[in-house]
Amino acid sequence: MTQAPAASGPKVFLDYDQDALDAAYDQNIYAPNREQIAERNNANSAAVRARIGAPERIAYGSRPEEHLDLFRTHAANAPIVVFLRGGAWHATAIERYSFAAELFVTAGAHFILVQYAGVEDVAGKLLPLASQVRNAVAWVYRNADRIGGDAARIYVGGHSSGAHMAGVVAITDWAPFGLPADAVKGTLCVSGMYELYPVSLSKRSAYVAFDAETIDALSAQRHLDRIRAPFVVAYGTFETPEFQRQAREFAAALDAAQKPVRLVVAPGYNHFELVETLGNPYGVLGHVALDFIGLPHPARQ
After folding, report:
1. What pLDDT sits at residue 3?
2. Which SS3 state, helix, strand or coil, does residue 77 take?
3. Whole-angstrom distance, CA of residue 225 vs CA of residue 43
4. Cβ–Cβ < 8 Å for 270, 31
5. Does the CA dihedral 97-224-294-147 come out positive or negative?
6. Which residues neighbour 106 within 8 Å (Cβ) at sequence distance 6 or greater?
């Protein structure tokens, strides 16, 4: 694991100086094999699409990027897993996360990847992205019957900035959407951020338009009272120190607020290696996800 520079300048957050805080929100510093993993994800995703078939692409809104990829299971009235891609809030192709679809489809759940805008497309603002992912989840709820799914068993997951957005979905007031307060039955957050204030102090503010409204509205840790369903919060021990701290403190806050939460710590995994295990029923996340949703494990059949 690459080591970040030691703090030596004025402190800007906790014990971080500016360089150290910037590094703590830069995956390239702590995951030098990032490109190798991305290539492997693309190859594995292509292999999964070849084995189980290409997903059905469906629009959930009017903008070009407002679409989802649906991988159907053969089970009737099946649970639905909605997954939000990472990419530091930039526009990222959802196809690269297809590698996770086979585990869920084989176990008897529909798997949906949601595309939404990158901050570069909306003047650096995060609130439009939050609106899109909420609209996507609302679309899934309203159309569950259409896709052969069970609206009473919708789970939302996400990786990195997608995990941040999954947290945002979990604190949503669903009344304006005409949905019940417990529209989402569980949230699986992998390597995410749950309090935006320290992120706003980092170099990510060069392309994200952080302001007081955004930081407050989209920091899940500030709105624990709105959470209605269990959480899984996961991180690897080779993640950046801030991504590790964010996960630990969010899980601790959930627990203190008496919200059901399971903290999963994966020794030896970095930010990009951990999410790969979501595609493996015997992997760290695959095993946890099947338990969380109540799906059968291959080893138990």
Report:
1. 59
2. coil
3. 41
4. yes
5. negative
6. 52, 73
Bridge-based pairing state of the strands 67-71 and 56-59: antiparallel
Whole-number pLDDT of residue 1: 52
What's the full length of the chain, in residues? 301
Q: Which residues contact 206 (CB under 8 A, 6 or more apart)?
A: none
- 124 φψ region: left (φ > 0), alpha (ψ -120 to 50), beta (else): left
**What pLDDT, in 10s, does the model give residues 148-179?**
999 999 999 999 999 999 999 999 999 999 99
Report the predicted TM-score, pTM, of the whole model to 2 decimal places.
0.96
56-59, strands of its sheet edge to edge: 56-59, 67-71, 110-114, 78-84, 149-159, 186-190, 231-236, 261-266
Q: Are 279 and 100 in contact (CB under 8 A)?
A: yes
What residues of the chain score a pLDDT lower than 50? none
Domain 11-300 has CATH 3.40.50.1820: yes
Beta bridge partners of 189: 158, 233
Whole-angstrom Cα Rg for the chain: 18
DSSP symbol at 131:
H
Which pair of tokens denotes residue 159?
């990786």
Q: What is the pLDDT of residue 86?
A: 97
CA distance 43 to 38: 9
Spatial CA neighbour of 136 closest among 84, 76, 73, 72 = 84
